[in-house]
Structures are given as C-alpha cells and as structure tokens.
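Re: the request from the purification team.
They wanted to know what the chain is likely to look like in 3D before they choose a buffer screen. I agreed to run a prediction and write the result into the notebook, where they can find it.
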Amino acid sequence: MFALEGPGAYLDVGLVILVLLYFLGACWFVLGTRRKNVTTDRVPMVSVVVAARNEAERIAGCLSVLLVQDYPHKQYEVIVVDDGSTDDTAGIIGEYLDSPVSVRLLQTEGLGSKKAALSLGIAEAKGDVILSTDADCLVSLGWISGMVAHFREGVGFVIGYSQIGSASDIQTWRHGYEAVDFTSLMTCLWGSAGWGHPMAASGQNLGFLREVYFEVGGYDKIMHRASGDDVLLLQMVRNLRKWSIVFASDNSTFAQHPVAESWRALLRQRSRWASNATVLSGLDPLFFAHMLITYLLSILLLATPVLLTVGLLSMPLFLGAVAVKTVAEFAAFSRGVTLAGRRELYRYFLFWVLLQPLHVVVVGTLGILGLFSWKGRNHRWGRRV
C-alpha cells in the first residue's frame, strides 16, 4: 500500500496508524456505554464531603440543593471543608449549620490542597458511603439516592456524570467548545467503565465506600500532586482488583458545573488535569496510550500545512484521516448528547473539531511540564510553589 521511500512515506504510515487507533478507541468507548448497571435499594449512612476555597459566590447554591435531597435526612450529612478561603465562604457556610440535615464546617487554614481538605472531611465522616462534588456545582434533587443505588454488593466506586452549565448558560462559542469537549470526555468515562476498565472520574460528581478509601491509603500517596483527587484515586481503587467501579448514567445523578470564566481559565484547568499523565503511565498504561495517541495525532494534524507544502504528506490521505477522526468523535459526542439531552450543543461540534488539536497540544504540553495555576496557587513541574 505504501512505498517507504523517504520521510513522507513514513509520515503517511504514521498518520494511518494513529487515526486507525483513534477510531478503534472511539468505537470501544461508544460500545462500552451500551452496558447496563444493576442497582440496589439499600439506604446506608452517607457523608457528602465538599472542599471549598473562595467560593462565596456559589457555595450557597451548592448547599441549598444538597440540603433538600430526596434521601432520608437522618441518613446523610454534609461536611464542607474550607481550605483557607480569603472571602466570606466560611461565613456563608455557617448560615446552614442549623439545617434539618447535619452540616459541619471544617477548616484547613489553607495549609494543604483540595486533597488535604477532602482528607480532613473524610476522616471526620460518619457515613459508609462518601459522595463528593465541587463547591461550585449543582446536583440534582435525587443525586444522593441515585448514586447510592449503584453501590450494589461488590461495588466500591461510582463515577457520576457531570455537564457544563445548562442550555441557557451556553451563550458563546467558547462556552459551546467547553461543553462539547466535556460531553465527549464524559462519554469516554462512561464507555471505559462499561468495559470494566474505568479510566477516569470527575471530582464534580463521584462516590466511594469509606472502607475502600482507607484501603488504598487515602490520598497519602498522591498528596504532592496538584490534581488527581478523582482520577488517581479511581486508578488506585481499580488496581486493587477486588472492587467493581461503575458509571451512574441515570439523569437523577447528574451534576452541573459552571462554564469557565475565560479561555485562559479553561486552559489552566485542563493543564492541571493533564499534569497527571506521567503518573497515569504507570497506573493505567491503556489510558496513557490513548492520551499519547491523541496527543501525537493532534501534533501531526497541526503540522499538516507545512507537511503538505513541502510534499511530505498526501492531501487525499490527510482529508481521509480528518474524515475518519471526525466520524469517530461525532459518534462519541452524540452518545453523550443522548444521555444528557443537550441537543443544542450540536451547533458547536465542528468548531470543536477544528480547535481540538491545538487545545490538546497546548494543554498536553503545559500539563507534561506541570506549568499552571489553580485557586491562586502557582505550580511548576506539577508541584505547588
């Protein structure tokens, strides 16, 4: 098929291999979403742990929804850990301490990180099941009962579905890009869990058994990482090979996260996530391979104008690769849209397709170098400075 005469032929072969692997990966994710979960009707004690730092604008909304859940009020508690806020976060939380549902406020005095804050909350938790969401998220009214229902016998970790804003929140192309990107990401989480090889989770919406958390040693092994309170914890649980990990696809379990404030804020967030890539290479080689394929394919596509100009890449082959990649991405994205009912996002899909390779390369490179900021804290080489 290819006459390997010079670097151009090798680039052609490399592009074919990368796009084929990318396509097969997308098929694997989509097919994994077809698998169904078995639920239970147990009503265990639940502790909802929320880490908050400078969330005065949104913490009230988060707590208001958490305190009117359809789960028995005596069977769950809400623990909010204020991680050294310099605004009125703690004062607002204090207004909810006399609620019918038990609400507790803990404070780290800003000495640690999100994982340190969550560790403090979990150590004080009374529940057998720990649920966690971010302080700027809104969960559904049936979130606790829906998530708990997935903890059938043998299940130690539940990945929840999160979406970016609501239809009315998506007002710009930047908002649309972020929502499409996150919808596609959620499909990958859903599909990989369906195959029994969950790759990642989002701290915006997750749950795990308290005993499982302590069995892996909590966050002690990864406390030095700026990110990973979700994906790295999941990977440690998966590597125990004794607990099932499932994805909660019922819409009663959904969480909603606000759109990023700017392109810069979005890049900082994704770079922070990508900073875990080197750790994941040891914890989950399959997941790392998928990230590496996506990264290399994106670099090759970005270099295409130059490669075509100097004759090192075939235009028909390039167009075919783009078509195959787009079809694969649309299949995964459509599956996520079907789950979330977010049809308004279709209009932003092609914009996402065009911008995604640049996004992947920028975020991947910054993540590998560990260069990003989060919550006013700068990180270099993946560590806080």
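For the purification team: The mean pLDDT is 91.
Please add any questions underneath this entry.
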